[in-house]
Each structure stands twice: as structure tokens, then as C-alpha cells.
Amino acid sequence: MVRRRGSISGLRRAGRRTNVALLVVLVGAAATGGLAFAVGTPIPAWLATLVHGLFGLAVVLLVPWKTVIVRRAPALRVASLSLVVLIAICVASGLFEVFIGYGVLWRLSPMQVHVGSAALAAPLLAWHIVRHRPQRLRRLDLSRRTLLRTGALAAGVAATYGTLEGVGRLAGSASASRIATGSHYVSPGAAPATMWLFDQVPYLATDHRVQVVAVEFPVADLTSRSTTIRARLDCTSGWYTEAEWTAVSLADLLPGEQLAAATSIEVVSITGYRRRFPAADAGSLYLATGYQGEPLQPAYGAPVRLVAPNRRGFWWVKWVASVQLSDLPAWGQSPFPLQ
Ligand code: HEM
Ligand SMILES: Nc1nc2c(c(=O)[nH]1)N[C@H]1C(S)=C(S)[C@@H](COP(=O)(O)O)O[C@H]1N2
Ligand SMILES: [Mo]
């Protein structure tokens, strides 16, 4: 009797630890995934995607243990099954993105499916946790045995990651040529016109003027002040391109004294889409009117769009209406656009 009870509660404890571990790695994966989108520069991006991959694979390695728990459950609810399906889609599309690369199926890229399924899973996961007994950490969880188990999981994850990367490279998969953010190359001519969420292409008249603080610049004026710069456009939907832009630096357009006194620069699209940058970045932000030696096309931001080297694509505001200086800090905005 005593042994039986002991073994059942032992199993319960093991289940609880698996659940806590699963929660930690899922939250870790979501947080590092978001971080990978937020940072544009190579080293933090490489770290964020590396740690993200490790968390993502940890989810997979915990499946056998979670299966034991699921099989013990008296009934499977639709909400829980949907959660499992969404996480499976998320992991599968993550692996697809890494090893097969960028592509579009039913107007979605693997990365869009990946982030979309994670976003749909988030409220279901929250509900799942609320519905089930709270999984509190106990002193026993910090025992030496648990630490050893966590270490074993981490070693297993690292070995799996290393194996996947090694095999991916040897097999010449898309993983070998992806950049730090995980994006895959497309040629400048094949770069898809991309919206963050819901914007529609506006068709602007040729006499469109861009308001830069107090001055209205006709498009031809901007072009005549421009030079050719090379920059990498790296979209969070999983592709990047390297192209030539006919562009003028904001440092050449903004009034020097006012710029020196300002904290941030806000670039606003005719659609209302907007991003705020530190004033110190003026020299590395550009208004572009041309792409690969040709005038910009409407879907790509004509007649004027922002070029923001070293920042992910969502910073590259298209159809610029105005550039304003302000005293608000650049971080005083949503980390991602909302439209
Ligand atoms: C919690 C749910 C998530 C899980 C379980 C998950 C899992 C994974 C997995 C297994 C991979 C493949 C890793 C590899 O083999 O190197 C991956 C890749 C990736 N995921 Fe996630 N992910 C999640 C959420 C997110 C979110 C919310 C974002 C972005 C906002 C994101 C962005 C990425 C990126 C950029 C890659 C490519 C990384 C690379 O190239 O190394 N993920 N994910
Ligand atoms: N006004 C506006 N600008 C925008 C967007 C948008 O939805 N609205 N999408 C951004 C995103 S997510 C990317 S990746 C680039 C895509 O530029 P492209 O269409 O030239 O490829 O534009 C950025 N600028
Ligand atoms: Mo993007």
C-alpha cells in the first residue's frame, strides 16, 4: 500500500516537474523569438536565434515525458488538443524555416506560420495553466537530482542542435547560408513587397512632398541630393536582400541645431504607420527615392521610403509623409508596429 502510494505521488511529482520545465522552455522560446525580431544587429541577433533554437528543441525533447502525463489524463479537451497542434505547427514551421528556407505557400511564409501559431498558442497556454492545478516550485525541485536532470536535458538539447546544424550543413540545406537573424537570401529583383500587418499600398501623386521639420521637400529635390548606398533589407518574414538605394541621409536634411537638441526622430507614413529613432541615428537613416538605379515602385514605398541599415525591415517606413524631431525617447513606442 505504502509503496503504491509512494510511486503514484512520485509519478505526480515527476509530471509536475515536466510541466514546469515545459512552461519554462515555451516562455523562453517565445521571449527569445520576440527578441530575435527586435534586435537588428548581427551579434545579439545571432545569440537570440541560437538560444531560441535551443529552447525550441527543448520543447521537442520534453515530448516523451509530457506524453506520459497526457496519457494519464481522464479526458482530452479541445482547448488542450488545439494547444498541442499549434505548438507542433510552430516547431515544424520553425524547422522548415531553418532547413528548407524562405518560400510562400497560400500567401504565407514559414516564419509567418511560425509566429502566427505561437501567437495563437499563447492565450491557449495561459488558459491551460489557469485550468490546471498551479504548478508551484517546491524545495525538492532545487535538489541535486533535479539539477542533474536539467543538465541532462540541456546536454541533450545542445547535442540535438549541434547534430541538426552539422547534418544541415553537410546536406547543403538552407540552414548553412542563413544570416544571424535566420533570414534567407532573395535577389533584389525578387524581394517581395511586404506589409507588417494591415497597410494598403497608397498611390501617391508625383508632386508629393515630404515634410522634414519645417521644410517641404519635393521628391526631385531629395533625389538630386542623393547618392547610391548599399544596404541589407532583412524582413522578419524570413528573407533578406542586398540592394542599391538612391538615398539621402537624414543628417543632411534635418536642421543641425534642432537635431542636436532633439531626443528622437519620428518617421511617419502617409498610411499612419510610424517608427521613432534615437536622434543620434540621423546619419545612418536615409530617405530613398530609387532602387537598383530605378525610381521606387508603388508597392515598395514610392515615391519616398526610409532605408534603415542594421535594423529589421519593419523600421523601413514606406510612403514617408513626414520626418519630425521630438523630445520623447525612442523607446517610448510599441516595440513592433501595430498596423
Ligand atoms: C513558444 C513557441 C515557439 C517555439 C516552440 C519555437 C520553436 C522553434 C524551433 C524548434 C526552431 C528551429 C530552431 C533550429 O533548429 O535552429 C525555431 C526557429 C525560429 N523561430 Fe521559433 N519558436 C517559438 C516562437 C517564436 C516566436 C514568437 C518568434 C518570433 C517572434 C520565433 C522566431 C524564430 C526564428 C527567427 C527562427 C529561426 C532561427 C534560426 O534561424 O536559427 N519563434 N523556433
Ligand atoms: N508604411 C509601411 N511601411 C512599411 C511596412 C508597412 O506595412 N507599412 N512594412 C515594413 C516591412 S515589415 C518590411 S520588411 C519592409 C518591406 O519593404 P519592401 O516592400 O520594399 O520589401 O517595409 C516596411 N515598411
Ligand atoms: Mo517585414
Describe the structure.
The chain has helices at 2-38, 42-61, 63-72, 78-99, 110-131, 144-170, 219-224, 250-253, 256-261, and strands at 184-185, 209-212, 215-218, 227-234, 239-249, 264-269, 274-278, 286-291, 294-295, 305-307, 320-326. It has two domains: 2-185, no CATH class; 188-332, Alpha-Beta Complex (Sulfite Oxidase, Chain A, domain 2), CATH 3.90.420.10. A hairpin with a 2-residue loop joins β2 (209-212) and β3. By secondary structure, the chain is of the alpha+beta class. Residues 1-10 have low confidence and may be disordered. The N and C termini lie far apart (62 Å). α2 packs across α6 (144-170). The strands form two sheets. Strands 1, 4, 5, 8, 9 and 10 form a six-stranded mixed sheet that branches. Protoporphyrin IX containing FE (HEM) binds next to α1, α2, α4 and α5.
Quick recap:
The chain has 339 residues and is of the alpha+beta class. 45% of the residues lie in helices and 17% in strands. The protein folds into 2 domains: 2-185, no CATH class; 188-332, Sulfite Oxidase, Chain A, domain 2 (Alpha-Beta Complex), CATH 3.90.420.10.
List the ions, cofactors and other small molecules found in this model.
protoporphyrin IX containing FE, ligand MTE, molybdenum atom
Number of E-state strands: 11
Radius of gyration: 24 Å
Q: What do the pLDDT scores average to?
A: 92
User: How many domains comprise the coordinates?
Assistant: 2
Quaternary state reads: single chain
How is the main sheet built? 6 strands, mixed
* Gap from first CA to last CA: 62 Å
Give the ordered list of helices and strands: HHHHHHEEEHEEHHEEEEEE
Question: Counting H and I runs of at least 4 residues, what is the number of helices?
Answer: 9
- State the secondary-structure class: alpha+beta
Give the low-confidence spans: 1-10
* Relative strand content: 15-25%
